[in-house]
Every structure is written in C-alpha cells, then in structure tokens.
Design a protein that fits this description.
- The longest helix has 21 residues.
- Strands 1, 2, 4, 6, 8, 9, 11, 14 and 17 form a 9-stranded parallel beta sheet that branches. The protein has an 8-stranded mixed beta sheet with strand order 3-5-7-10-13-16-19-20.
- By secondary structure, the chain is mostly beta strands.
- The relative contact order is 0.13.
- It has 1 helix and 20 strands.
C-alpha cells in the first residue's frame, strides 16, 4: 500500500478501505471506512488537509489536493470518476458523482446527490446545488435534476465499489 507520512502528518485509513499499490496517499489525509482508492490515484495532503468520508470511490488516476492551511472535503458514498481532479474544493457532498475527467476547482461546492458530467469544469467558488447536474466547460446547470430512479441506479453502482474494496483486500 502506497501510504506515506509527510513531515509530521500521517494518513488515517478507515476499516475496510483499500488503497491500490500504485496509488499515493500522503500527509494530512483521512479516508473513511469501506473506501476504494484506485490505481494511479493521488491524494496529496502535503500542505493542506483532505477528508474523505465512508464508502467513497476515488477511481483510477484521480488527483485530490488542498491549498496550504485549507481543507478539501469529500463526503460519504461519493463517486469520483477516472481521471477527475478535485483541487481545494470546499465540499463534494454525500452521494455526489464527479464524472470521468471532470475538474472541481478551488472553493467549489458540489451538493448532495449532485452530478458533475464527464469532462466538466466546475470553476473556483462555483456551486452545483443538491440534486442538480452540471455539464460543460465551464460547467453550467441543466434544467433536469437527479430523480429517484437515478439515485437508485447509482446507489447500486456505488455498492459495487464498496464490494471491490472488500474483495481487493
């Protein structure tokens, strides 16, 4: 497992969390229980703090970082798709989905059950409200919102990664 202390900061991993050997987690990083951190992912808590809730999947080649003295918080049951970047976001709330290759930038907020589409760029300080969908560069909100059928389907997908974390052990 590629988990490293940096200066006086040591990552903390919850029970049942899997970190792929080619992923890097270092510094002031807290990851909850039952999470899956995929190949090539980088969680850099070198001069900022990263907090990841329970049952969250950070897929292949994602980058998560925080500015000096600031905190990037990712909630419970969040899916961060392949190659996404979350840089110093204030909050990616519970059940959110960050699409493949998307960028969530400094001080942004992504609400509960919100979706950031593939390749979208959520700008500095931008907010994607709960259950809304943001797409494009820069990200803009769609009129359509996340419904119960979408939530049920994505709950099933999210459980697949929790199961993967257990199976990879």
């Amino acid at each position: 497992m590629a988990v490293y202390s940096f200066e006086d900061k040591t990552p903390r991993l919850g029970e049942g969390t899997f970190v792929h050997p080619s992923a890097d987690v270092f510094g002031d990083v807290t990851i909850g229980q039952g999470c899956w951190i995929g190949p090539g992912a980088r969680l850099r808590g070198d001069y900022g703090t990263i907090i990841v809730g329970d049952y969250t999947s950070i897929e292949d080649n994602c980058v998560i970082h925080a500015r000096p003295g600031e905190v990037t918080t990712i909630g419970n049951w969040v899916t961060v798709g392949h190659g996404a970047i979350i840089h110093n976001a204030k909050l990616v709330d519970d059940y959110a989905v960050i699409g493949m290759g998307a960028i969530v930038s400094d001080w942004a907020v992504v609400g509960r059950w919100a979706v950031v589409g593939e390749g979208a760029v959520v700008r500095q300080g931008q907010e994607v409200p709960a259950e809304h969908i943001a797409v494009g560069v820069p990200a803009r909100l769609l009129e359509k919102t996340v419904n119960a059928a979408y939530q049920a389907e994505w709950t099933r997908f999210k459980r697949l990664y929790v199961d993967l974390a257990r199976r990879y052990q």
